[in-house]
Amino acid sequence: MSIDLQTVKKIASLSRISVTDAEAEAMVPELNNILGWVEQLGEVDVTGVQPMTAVIPNQQRLRDDVVTDGNVRDKVLANAPQAEHGFFAVPKVIE
Amino acid sequence: MTDLTDLTVADIRDGFRGGDFSAREVAEAFNANVAAAKALNAFIVETPEKALGAADAADKARAAGETLGPLAGVPIGMKDLFCTQGVQTTAASHMLEGFTPTYESTVSGKLWAAGAGMLGKLNLDQFAMGSSNETSYYGNVISPWRRKDGGNAALAPGGSSGGSSSAIAARLCPAATGTDTGGSIRQPAAFTGISGIKPTYGRCSRWGIVAFASSLDQAGPMARTVRDNAILLEVMSGFDPKDSTSLDLAVPQWEAHLSSDLKGKTVGIPREYRPDGLNAEISAMWDRGIEWLKDAGAEVVEVSLPHTKYALPTYYIIAPAEASSNLARYDGVRYGQRDLPDGAGLQDMYAATRAAGFGPEVKRRIMIGTYVLSAGFYDAYYTQAQKVRALIARDFELAFEKCDLLLTPTAPSASFALGEKQADPLAMYLNDVFTVPASLAGLPAMAVPGGLDAAGLPIGLQVIGKALDEQTVLNASLAIEERAGFTARPDKWW
Known about the structure:
The complex is a heterodimer of chains A (95) and B (494). Chain A contains 3 helices and 2 strands; from the N terminus they run H-H-H-E-E. With 95 residues, chain A is mainly α. In chain B, helix 5 packs parallel to helix 6.
C-alpha cells in the first residue's frame, strides 16, 4: 500500500501539524519507505495470537475514590503561554 | 592527589564517607569539567549551584554524624527528559523551551533524596527519538571519542541518551540517568565505552518523565562500572502509585549481591543475532564475550529467537503510534511554545504550534503513528504489531527455558560520524536491531564495554535477562567487565 500527497496532507491534518506543499511532497517517499518496510509484518502468521496488552504481568490497581491532590491552580497555569483570570486562554472558538 | 573526576560512584561514596575528601571538593571538580567541555554540547542547562548545594548538605550531614543517603556526596547528570522542579525541562525540543516544571519526577526525586546532586540537564535526541543525538533542537552532542585515523571527524555519542553517554565518557559526571525505549541507554553506552542498564519494564516509575512510547519507556542508570549501575538502579527503582504500570515489588539489594561467579548459569546465544554480513569486529567481540562467560563458570548453549527480524518493524509501528498519542498534549495551550498566526483560530494555532515546535524526526514519527492508528488501518498495522510483539516476547520465554541469560552484541557497529546516517531514517533505525527486541518484551538488558575496534572506538556486549532478574544481568556484566579490563578513555581534545 503506498500513500500519495493527498494522504500525507490528510495525516498531517489529523496530526494537527501544518505542512507546506513542499514539505508534504518530501514526506511522500520518506513515509512510503518506512511504511513499506513495516508492512513485512503482514507475512507473520498470528493465528490464535492475542495482541499484547502488558509486557510484564501486573494487576490493575484501584484506590479509594478520594481527593488526593488539588488546589494547585497557579502551579498548573505557571507554564501556560497565556493564562488569564485563573484560566488557560485560547483564541476565540465561537463566532 | 588523584583526580576526583576519575573516581567511580562507589569510590566517591566510600571516599566521602571515609573522610578522604569533602563532597564540595568533588562537586567543584566535576563542575569545572562541565564548564570546560562546552565543545561536547552534552548539557542543555548546567546547574553547578545544585551540585554544590547537595554537596554542602552532605558535608554538613557528615560533620554532624547524621545518617548519610546512599548517594551522599555524589554529583550526577540528569537526562533532560526528567522533569526537575524549577529547572527547565525541554526533552531537547523547541516545543518545551522554557518549560519549568513545578514538580519533580519520581526517579530524579529519589536520587536527590538519596543525597545526589545535579550537575545539569543532559542533551538528548528530541523527545528521545533518535540514535545519534542529531535530532536535538539544542544541537548535536559530540562524542569525546575520535577515530585513530587522525581525521578528527565528530562522532555520534549514540542516542537518545547521548548527552549522558558523552558526559560520562568525558568525566563530566561519574554517572547519569538515561531512558530507554528501544535502546536509548544501551546503544549510547556501547558507543562511548561505558555501561548502562535498562531494568525490567515497571521497575522505575515513569511519572514525571516526558513520555515517548509509554509501553516501552524505562528509566535506568548509566555509569562507567557495573557496580555503579547497581548502586544507582537501587535508588531509582521502586513502586510508585502515580505510575499505573509501576511494579509493586521490593527493590533487591543488587549491589550487595554482585558476584561474577557464573557457575550453574547457562548463557543462551541467539543465532538470529548473527546475520550474514554482521560486522566482523562486532562478531569477534561477541565470541570473546562467550569465552569470558565460560571462563566465569557459565555453560553456553545456542538458542533461537525466530521472530527477531520482525522486532524493528514491530517497534516502528508501536513506538510511533504511542508517540502520536502522547505528543498530542503539545497544543500550545497548557505549556510550552505557542505559535499564533494573525487571525488564527484554535485549530490553526494547534497546527502552527506543532509545526514550529517539533523537529523533522518527531513530526515523521507522529505522522506514522497517526497513520497506523487511523480508521481502516488500525488492525492491519497496530493490532498486527501487538500480536507480533506477543510472539517476540514468547520467543524469549521459550529461550529462557533453556538458559538464564542471553549474550548478544549491543549495536551493529561502533560509533559513526555525525551526518553519516542522517539522510536515511531507515538506516538510522537499524542501529537498534539488537536492543529493540528486549524492549518489546520488557526485559532487563545491560550494555557493557568489551574493547576497542581497529579504529580505536569502543564496542560492547549486551546481556539480556529474564523479567525481574536484574541480578543475573548485572553479575554476567560484571564477569565481562572483569575479564575485558576495559580502561581505555578518550584523549582530551575538548
